[in-house]
Amino acid sequence: MIIVVAVLVGVLFATGIFLILQRTLTRIILGLTTMSNGVSMLLMLSGGRAGAAPFTDRQTSGVRLADPMPQAMVLTAIVINFAMVSFLLAMAYRSMSLTGADEVEDDLEDRRIALGERVEEIYEEIAPDLVEERDQ
Amino acid sequence: MNVVITLLVVAPLVAAGLNMALWRRVKVQQIVGSSVLTAMLIGSLALLRHVTTHDPVVVELGAWSAPLGIVLVADVFSAMLLVVAMATLLAVFVYAVGQPRADKGAFYFHSLYLILATGVAGSFLAGDLFNLFVGIEITLTSSYVLITLGGRKEQVRSGMTYVIINLLASTLLLVSIGLTYAATGTVNMADAAQKLDLIPNGVHQGIGALMLIAFGLKAAIFPLFFWLPDSYPTAPVTVTAVFAGLLTKIGMYGIIRTQTLMFPMEGNSLMLLLGLAGATMVVGAIGALAQNDMKRLLSFSIVSQIGYILFGLGINTSIGVAGAIFFLLHQIPVKTSLFLVAGLVETVSGSASLDKVSGLMRRSPFTAAMFALSGLSLIGLPPLSGFFGKLALVEAGISSRNWTVTALSLVVSLLTLMYLTKVWSQMFWGEPSQPEQIRLGDGRVFELPDRAPRMMNAATLGLVGVTLVLAVAVEPIWSMCTQASAELLDPQFYIQAVLGS
């Protein structure tokens, strides 16, 4: 059983990382969600074998107990993750309503510096009238 | 002292809630915020005084003793960082109060800022890995909102990068905490430090490496820094100033704390750390040289200076780690005050672009003086604070015969001088430029003031004053740094303080 869950963690992480490397914001968010589900599974795994109860009453003492600590941590992690994903979705929506596209955009200043001197040539090539207007 | 430590985490959170309830009354919020931050500064000063002469203070929450219960631990290292962080937070808060904007109280800025303070105190005081994670998460969550405050187009663009990268880093951190728990059955740092020695070396090193990557992403060390210069400059200047001073430094705190206590390094991994340090310093400085906007340039500079702290940690001798701690303490106020100066520049000229602004020395000599003082301190010109940090690091580098990185650190000092000279000569020298005109909706033109509001100037001056205090009182501060480094390099000290003997 542990092997199955461990493989599942691997699959969730692989899918998550693949999705994060995309350019579409919704896919990135899906990727993060998938990855954090993988983390939750991993935390559960750290509590030992599956199938035991985290707490029991006095009558059933002597039963094998599961470690309750990872379950508490998973709970915290899920709450944090829930808040984060809703925030990201709100931001993706804001980004879409501002730019009309569901994509990660380039940093223009970064591009300008990378192009350096060539930026003037490119300006003149693509919009000669605007450059003329600016120079006057 | 127990009450003080608990209050350092709880008080700002309560005040944040109070501020949210008082969302209509900006004035009251400002008073609540600044008085809580002042109280926290005083509290952390008292704490520092206590821990330098006594043992570290360990607070067992709910009287559950470690390793089962949650503990808050304050040793010299965390108390020193707390003092500097609180002074910085207070100065930036006063600066924000003084800003000439009508909407400065909007969007719950004051509450979010206090939640950020909670997170900072929480992560410096956490005695177990999971609460360290939660502290960092609290800081980051409020920073996500702060960086997108206002919701302008470029803020959303850069905020997206920032949030996604930090969530990824948090995920990795959580994975490494989960693995630590799977390997040792505890998340208490002192307890885990003991038990990690018993597990196979490969697993031990692997978890350590994963944790280094997770904190390294947050601290923006090479090659994990690309998100930082991309996202910091677009936020409001008060927000960027706090981020610049504190957020990457929390990542650095995480690296220093976990690597010295739980994953003591030797041999090849130290060489790797030194290599990363060298690359971080050089790449950051070269990146800064290429920039044309003061805030972007300073963002690259953050990356470059992180390299120095890593350099001290990589040397791993008593004086090296002490140098790293001193450098960390010096970086927080210096970087923040440089960003506050960028904010002053924006206030009087409407832009922080090197192409558009010039001749500020004549228009606003006070801003120029503040930039000169904190800039020279960043370069490390004696007798300012950066000099003592670099002196210690270079001395440690030479005595441990790490010639290459030591030489690199000196070269990067020169590069630092170069990029700050670029700012100085383009922005402060030359003919005064026409301040950018802001057209209001009804066609009138808004004239920018010739000088920033007094409160903003005072806050900047106060923060520059903190860096001057670091330089003037270098003798006692340095002895605290060596004390902290001795404590860090002897994990048994921390373990005994938390778990008893």
Describe the structure.
- The complex is a heterodimer of chains A (136) and B (501).
- Chain A has 136 residues and is mainly alpha-helical.
- Chain A folds into 2 domains: 91 residues, Helix Hairpins, CATH 1.10.287; 30 residues.
- Chain A is built from 6 helices and no strands.
- In chain A, helix 1 runs antiparallel to helix 2 and helix 5 packs across helix 6.
- The model of chain A has no long low-confidence stretch (mean pLDDT 82).
- Chain B is built from 20 helices and 4 strands.
- In chain B, helix 12 runs antiparallel to helix 13.
- The radius of gyration of chain B is 22 Å and the shape is globular.
- The two termini of chain B are 21 Å apart.
- The mean pLDDT of chain B is 88.
- Chains A and B meet through helix 2, helix 3 and helix 4 of A and helix 5 and helix 6 of B.
Counting DSSP H or I runs of 4 or more residues, the number of helices of chain B is 20
Question: In the CATH hierarchy, what is the class of the largest domain in chain A?
Answer: Mainly Alpha
The strand count of chain B comes to 4
Number of domains of chain A: 2
List the helices and strands and how they pair.
The complex is a heterodimer of chains A (136) and B (501).
Chain A: H1 2-20, H2 25-45, H3 68-99, H4 108-115, H5 118-126, H6 128-135
Helix pairs in contact in A: 1-2, 2-3, 5-6
Chain B: H1 2-21, H2 26-53, E1 57-60, E2 71-74, H3 76-98, H4 109-125, H5 129-147, H6 153-184, H7 189-196, H8 201-219, H9 227-231, H10 237-261, H11 268-290, H12 294-315, H13 318-349, H14 360-363, H15 365-379, H16 385-399, H17 403-428, E3 438-439, E4 445-446, H18 454-472, H19 474-489, H20 491-499
Antiparallel strand pairs in B: 1-2, 3-4
